Amino acid sequence: MNGLRATLSALVLLSLGAIAPFSASAEINSLPSASKPEDVGLSSMQLKRIEDVTQKHIEAGLVPGAVMLVARHGKVAWTSVLGDRDKSINAKMQADSIFRIYSMTKPIVSVALMQMVEEGKLQISDPVSKYLPEIGKMKVGVEKPGPDGRPVLHLNDPERAMTVQNLLRHTAGLTYGSRGTSLVNQAYIDAKIGNRSFTNAEFVTRLSALPLKFSPGTRWEYSVAVGVQGRLLEVLSGGAPLSDVLAERVLKPLNMNDTGFWVPQDKLARAAQPWQRPNAPPMTPRFDVAERAKYQSGGGGMVSTMDDYLRFTTMLANGGTLGGTRILGKKTIEFMTANHVGNLPGRPPGLGFGLGFEVRKIEGEAALPGSVGEYGWAGNAGTLFWIDPKEELIAIYMVQVSDPDRIELRNRFRAMVQAAIIK
Question: Domains, the chain, ranges and CATH?
Fold first, then answer.
């Protein structure tokens, strides 16, 4: 297994080092492979436990396959590729397999929007209606008993306008239809918010006709806010589709060549696929990676690989640069990874939220170990990343699993990686 780790680490680094725009002395080559995890203060024994646990999950049918990575002190300390990429054809998982990353799309979109802030195209204190006027017409839906005692939705003016900051930190008054049973949630479902057959512009038009769940800025609720950010990026870019905006601003500069809103025909044989767990509820439906859907969801529509997301996270950990290319300013990243929700209701204990990332406020209270200041996010199919500036650590977990299983799996991975830090 040690030889496999070394080989996989070398493959990751060869892939990184082969990027044409970066010279041999570029920052991207500051991620050499550690000869062993202990060289960067990690326990080989504990990392082997992660492999063993993941292999048991694969044998039980809980996980089809996985690609996992931990980097520390600027070195790739451990990688593991296990199981199947596509069990239906007995195709083994590969280091370059392409995964649906769902909500790990959100940080990429937020980075592009903050680039525009740096360029003076907008400020995060701006009302969203300044750029998307229809958003300014939204009212707050308040449930009250009707004549028959059943709840009826009354519409009130919001206490304040929705701002760009509200979108970035999920305090916009928006929601996901599936994340509740209120009349507002049902309105989202009835309006087919997030349907892949609507364009980003149509998505915002439909959304703006619905009620807000609460007045912007009064609580945190995970929502379609980053989908609105995606449309905002299109408008600020003169109408270019979100895929082009992200390619120009983030993906091409970082050579994230396998990241996008669909998988091209010549790469479909690398797509990681979910699998029905035996004796379990039906597998959560997953979008067709080959489809070029009209809705390019800034909140959850992208696919990516371990290598590509390592480039993105390394850029963040480096203070905004990779391979001599600056994506964001150092202070912008510090600002994005600060806690922007204060003590607003809606967040789990010990965990705040920045501009595109969950951030840890204190070491205790949260049910998982971690460092103050670490930040990251996860995806609906089970993918996960976080960056720990204090420990100089990046961890990435790539799987394609069902909704009921994803949280337990990624929390176990997270806790076990934390346990691997020995100095």
Answer: 2-104+241-419 (3.40.710.10), 111-236 (3.40.710.10)
| Closest C-alpha to 360, from 381, 390, 330, 317 | 390
Write the DSSP assignment of 359-401 as a string of letters.
EE--SSSSSS---TT-EEEE-TTS-EEEEETTTTEEEEEE---
For the stretch 239-276, pLDDT in tens is 999 999 999 999 999 999 999 999 999 999 999 999 99
CA distances from 34 to 74, 76, 141, 231, 235 (A): 9, 6, 55, 42, 44
What pLDDT, in 10s, does the model give residues 298-354? 999 999 999 999 999 999 999 999 989 999 999 999 999 999 999 999 999 999 999
Task: Give how far Cα 220 sits from Cα of 67, 142, 143, 159, 336, Å.
Answer: 32, 17, 19, 15, 16
What is the rounded distance in angstroms from the CA atom of residue 377 to the CA atom of residue 106?
8
Structure tokens at 381: 């199919």
Instruction: Using alpha carbons, list the distances in angstroms from residue 208 to 101, 138, 195, 225.
Output: 27, 6, 15, 12
SS3 245: helix
At residue 32, the pLDDT reads: 79
Give the whole-number percent of the chain exceeding pLDDT 70.
Answer: 93
What's the CA gap between 129 and 225, in Å, rounded?
13
User: 10 Å Cβ neighbour count for 390?
Assistant: 11
Q: Is 134 helix (H, G, I), strand (E, B) or coil?
A: helix
CA distance 63 to 275: 8
How far lies 306's CA from each of 36, 125, 237, in Å?
20, 34, 29
- 99 has a pLDDT exceeding 60: yes
* Cα first-last separation, the chain: 23
Encoded amino acid at 176, one letter? Y
Name the packing angle between helices 105-118 and 225-236 (round to 10°). Answer: 40
Strand ranges for 131-259 from DSSP E: 140-145, 151-156
pLDDT one-digit tens code per residue, 38-92: 999 999 999 999 999 999 999 999 999 999 999 999 999 999 999 999 999 999 9
Q: How many beta carbons lie within 10 A of that of residue 247, not counting itself?
A: 18
Residue 20's CB is within 10 A of a number of other CB atoms, namely 6
